[in-house]
Amino acid sequence: MNLFWVFLLLIIFVDLSLQNLELPVRGASPKLNEKYSKIKNQEFFKCDNGLNEYPISFINDNYCDCEDGSDEPGTSACIEMTFYCSNEGYVPEIIPSSRVNDGICDCSDGSDEWMSPNKCQNLSKEKKVRLDKQMEEEITIRREGYIAKLKLKKKTEKKSDKALQKINDLNQEIKEINKTLIQITYYQSLYTDPNKVMTEEQKTEVNSFLKLTGWERFKSFFVSSSISNQNKLQMKKSKIEDKIMILQEKIKMVDPFQTDNQSNPEDDFFYLKDTHYSWKTDDKHYDYTFYPFDKVEQRDNNDRNTVTIGRWNDKQVTDGQELYINGKRCNNGPSREVLIKYKCHKTSKIVSVKETNFCIYELIFQTPGICEDIDDDFHDQQKKEAIESEIVSKNVISTKNNNSNSGLWKIVIIVALCVMAYFAYTYYNQKNDNNGLFQKKSLKNE
Amino acid sequence: MKTNQFIVLFFLVCLTCCNEEQNFKKCRDSNYCKSRKLFQDKTKESSYQIIPNSIKTEKQLFECKLERKNSKNKHGSLILQITFPLANVVRVIINEEDPKNNRYQMESLLAKETFEQQKYILEESEDYCFFKMDDESNQKESSFLIKLEKKEHFGISVLSLDGEEILKINDKSLLSFETSKTSKQSKPKQGSSQSDSEPYGGSSVSLDITFQNSGNLYGLPEHTTGLSLEDTKEGEPYRLFNVDVLDYEIGSREALYGAVPMILSKTKKKEMLNAVFWNNPAETWVDISTDRMKTKNKQFKKNRAVHFMSETGVIDLFIIVGKEKQMYQTFTNYAKLTGFPFLPPIFSLGYHQSRYTYKSEKEILRLQSTFDQLDIPFDVLWLDIEHTEGIKYFTFDPINFPNPSGLIDTISKPGRKMVSVVDPHIKKDPNWELFKDALESDFFIQQNTKTNKFFEGECWPGLSLWPDFLNPKVREWWSSRFSYDKYEGSTKNLYIWNDMNEPSVFHLPENTLPRDTIHFGEIENRNIHNLYGLLVTQSTFNGLINRNQDQNERPFILSRSFFAGSQKYSAIWTGDNTANWEHLKYTDSMLVSLNLAGLPFVGDDVGGFLKNPEAELLTRWFQTGSFHPFFRSHSHTDTKKMEPWVFGEPYTGIIRKWIKNRYSLLPFYYTQFHKASTLGKPIMRPLWLVFPNEINPTQKKYELQSYMIGSSILVFPISEKEQKTKKIYLPKGIWYDFETFKKMKSKGKLFTVKTPIEKIPVFYRGGKIVPRKTRIRKCTHLMSNDPITLFVFLDENQKSSGSIYIDDGHSYDYKNLNKFISQKFVFDDHSLSTVTNNNNYDSTLIERIVILGLSKNNIQDIKLNNSKSLEFELQNKILTIRKPNIYIGNDWVIDLITKDNEL
User: Fold this and answer.
1) Percent over 90 (pLDDT), chain A
2) What integer pLDDT is reported at residue B138 of this predicted model?
């Protein structure tokens, strides 16, 4: 009887040792775990590149067998691989596998330091709470920013209505004057060309024109072919031309973009025209002044020297940033340039300026113009996810700076984007199935 | 950029004046060098001879007097002393009998603790004195005789035991000893040295040495003329005088930042290396010439003569007599004379990121996170001059670095370190405590003998003074300034960079201290000029040891200036180089030259300090830089940033790969450094040293082409733009490609290899076992517990050997408590075994053994210690033993059992 039990145990034991692939496999992403679940009862597995086959016990045995590293998702044994931190309750992260068991907590849930289980705390919950709070704050900022933008836009729209009227008036004026000019030239040619004999019709036409414009007194200029009279006429003409030029300048001042009345992304920032913003470095060494649609200046408070570090180059804001180029040339260097990064906020000011490379600057400017509506229908969820991933990546960087914790924020963003896409996808599906979030929400409310 | 307007202005001024050759002294500007004789026929009229009956002998010291032939004046006689500090080393000292001119003899920095003064036996004949070693065991050890001419003109010959001449002293009769009496006529010097008051008149010394049957000569760093020394009949002699040269020229014998007056002579067609060390820290010029003559056997023989000319001091010559087939012994002997290199803390063998200047805490933190984001390992971030408050060293700028110790703590959390620059010029700021402290204690260098003032000059902070490091009290004071309470904001993770220590003084002739400035003991700067930088690093070294109570942490210091002996205290870099292909081409030979002169821990500014490198140049520089013993990128403030990622892909990925390669080789590099610190062996080696019997490696055209790390890795840097293929010379034997492990068999031939941007040709040498780590982490510290992979590269006889050294990587426990592992591995007859030397440290596991180049593929079984079978895999003729799980320090044996064995 005893022997039977021993035998049975032995069988179970052997059986277990043959199938010691426990799921989920450490360090593997959900997708990878899906793959493992299919082979967990097999004796052998194939590397991802299909080149080699090894016993299933070689998975995560802290020795790199596969050339492509696919046998070690959860250890540091293979180079250039990644480890998946599931961070239950928080956003998953992916870190380089060289950070597994290096004595530093990288994953928010601490799962990368599995050799010393008490070393790392699971910070997923904490981080989630913090994230939610930051999300709330950020969304408030963006909502306020968007409202501010709408208000400003209305104002500038009104402003531009008036401007439009003025432009129309001015254009009309130019048209009129121009007409006169053309006619003068024409009649002048009639009178002065000795080979041409005016018909009666033409004569009446000219006379009525002169009457209409009150230019009768100039008639002598036309009829006389004396040189001095001709010169006087010429002067009149050039005066009219000058007037046209002045009117055209006026139009430019009202509408610098010459947009022909079409909507333009720059319109969102129209309120910044003729304004300027200044910012001082921590050591008070430099003042930076930003003149939107014009230039950025740097003033050295030691030698009171001011240089332009970039000029508006008539390009549109893309991806929330804009490059001002052709600043003053550096000593044995290139022309200075400054990248302006816009950040949504209800008020406008410079957040920071730094020299990111030799004579290349980065100016972060907060202003409503860049704000977008985050509350509109379907995109709302997507946009919020994007904000979330932005915050997560920022958190990773700042914790790194504070605690020298690590993590690949870029990868974090990618993960966040994936998660976002996943959510969006399910959301879409659910919506289609008439079983979407709204229903759930309403259920909750009940 | 405007912060540095003054600096930029100076930079421009300097740039323009540096390009004018006039700025630095030529031989003709120096009285004693102007009359150089260029090895004319023997002018025996003016030569010296031994005064009869002046010979005194003691057990270890031989002494006699010399006088000028036909001279009626008896006062000018000289004292000649001969001693034998080591079994194969002769020391010849010649000094005035009655020295009046404060001649300086450099004694205190010699490594007296490793001297083994030898007794000798003297046999006198009418014409000659013969010396040989007394001790019987030493007679075996030493293999030479000394022959001293008694009658005719003074000369010393070193002979092998069978009478063959090895080298001759004063064969060209260029011995001269200028005394105040002989130099009465000296006129004020020309040109740039007009400010020199020369209160003592001329006091130059010179001597010639002829290496018999010599091949190439090496040594005399720091110069840019390539590895082997050129004849100087045309143009200038080699000059040794430590100066700050911005944007230095390639191919010049002009002086640079540091000096080692040591020359190696490789004997022709023999594995033998002789050397001389001219122990004189004054300005020194060296002429070199070649005599070709027919020997009795009607073969051509080349003798190479060198002529040392120093501005002042005494003649103090060490001759290291080489032994056949023991070339490395010459390096060991040189280290016994001047000191063995310090064993650096292992973090300093990782990658260093520097720039002039990272301006704030924020910038430093951003830098660290960018490295981590891009998964590029590094160990040290550097702070150049502008981290200080108003360029007062030992301070931090309160606005940009408000919390320095917090910053260092953050960076060092994973085990990384920081380095701050501490230059020897002290800002003249009467409100600064450190300045007042030094001023009140009279610690500064004096202007000259006439005035009772301290010397003041311009440097980065404006008006500055220079501490007098010749004064032992000043050295102690300087050391004490590194204590944590005095150097506020510093922590044990902050290490030091001594820059500008030639010393550099702006707006003065040759950008350095005037020669008549006065140091401790009324010694003029001209006497000790080349020593200043070394003394600064020595004091800093002691400061870094003493700042910790247990005095048990190894310092790390980087210095620009150096002299013989600097290897005891600091790493050296080649100063302000330029981002162009020519500089890249010559940088390796500069570093190898430093290695041959006893300074193994050397590197260059990867990417070039001045000007902007293009992506290809930066990438190529990183590739060779990743093999240099000291591996740091550094760049000028008026250049674009040069961090590994600035050019994006594919360059970032390529640079990352080579930096990771370096980290993977850390166990191997650390072992090389240990060998250097115990045996004085160079780390970067020329091919001729490892393969002395091959003709090609000794040819000049191959010098710049390649170098070896230890005797195991052969590197061919690419230093030409858009080079798609390269012809490389592989010495006889088996070689394995660094990345693919592809085996190449060479009979000593040229091969053409492809060199796309991601690759420089690098090979492992068959017959060597190389330990590596395959898990590349963020920095060296995080890799310290990781297991090792042993790569066994077999030679044509299916043999291989190698070694490993492991300790805690930072303390002196290896010295004080013997806590280290030193293990040798031998592969022979299908069996890999160990020869433990010391096994007294937490041992490291071997996770994998890779054996390459096996001729037999019929492995049946692999047994550990004759019992346990090990798992293995045989693929593409590469045998991988899986998880042997044996400790590296233990004794074990692994046998490969083939079918044949079984039978």
Assistant:
1) 38
2) 54
| Residue in the block written with tokens 């202005």 | B9
**Predicted confidence (pLDDT) per residue in B68-94, tens digit:** 876 665 557 899 999 999 989 999 999
Instruction: ipTM value, please give it.
Output: 0.88
Examine the pLDDT at B690 and tell me if it is beyond 60.
yes
CB of A104 within 8 Å of any CB in chain B?
A: yes
Residues B78 and B205: their CA atoms lie apart, in Å, by 12
The reported pLDDT for the residue numbered B744 is 96
pLDDT at B373 over 90: yes
Handedness of CA B463, B469, B475, B479 (dihedral sign): positive
Q: What is the length of chain B?
A: 903
CB atoms closer than 10 angstroms to residue B657: 17
Residue A280 C-alpha, separation from nearest chain B C-alpha, in angstroms = 13
Q: Identify the DSSP state of B193.
A: G
What does DSSP assign to residue A218?
G
Catalytic residue among B67, B178, B196, B502: B502
Distance between CA A65 and CA A52 in Å, rounded?
9
- Of B178, B254, B283, B499, catalytic: B499
Contact A82, A99 (CB under 8 A): no
Angle value at C-alpha B122, between B118 and B124, nearest 5 degrees? 160
CB interface of B with A, residues 351-370, below 8 Å:
360, 365, 368-369
Tokens of A91: 């956003």
Q: Is the pTM of this model over 0.90?
A: no
Interface of A with B in 272-291 (CB under 8 A): 282-283, 285
B499 is catalytic: yes
Nearest CA in chain A to B612: A333
Question: Do the beta carbons of residue A406 and residue B778 sit within 8 Å?
Answer: yes
> Rounded to whole angstroms, what are the CA distances from B601 to B406, B423, B574, B589, B812?
30, 20, 11, 14, 18
Q: How far apart, in whole angstroms, are the C-alpha atoms of residue A108 and residue A85?
A: 7
Q: How far is C-alpha B449 from the chain's CA centre?
A: 35
pLDDT digits (tens, 9 = 90+) for B573-608: 999 999 999 999 999 999 999 999 999 999 999 999
Select from A65, A104, A355 the Cβ nearest to the Cβ of B414. A104
Helix (H) / strand (E) element for B832: namely strand B831-839
Mean local confidence (pLDDT), A253-266 = 55
**Is A104 within 8 Å of B782 when comparing Cβ atoms?**
yes
Q: Does B638 touch chain A (CB under 8 A)?
A: yes
Cα–Cα nearest to B337, from B597, B88, B115, B91: B115
**Chain A nearest CA to B874, separation (Å):** 12
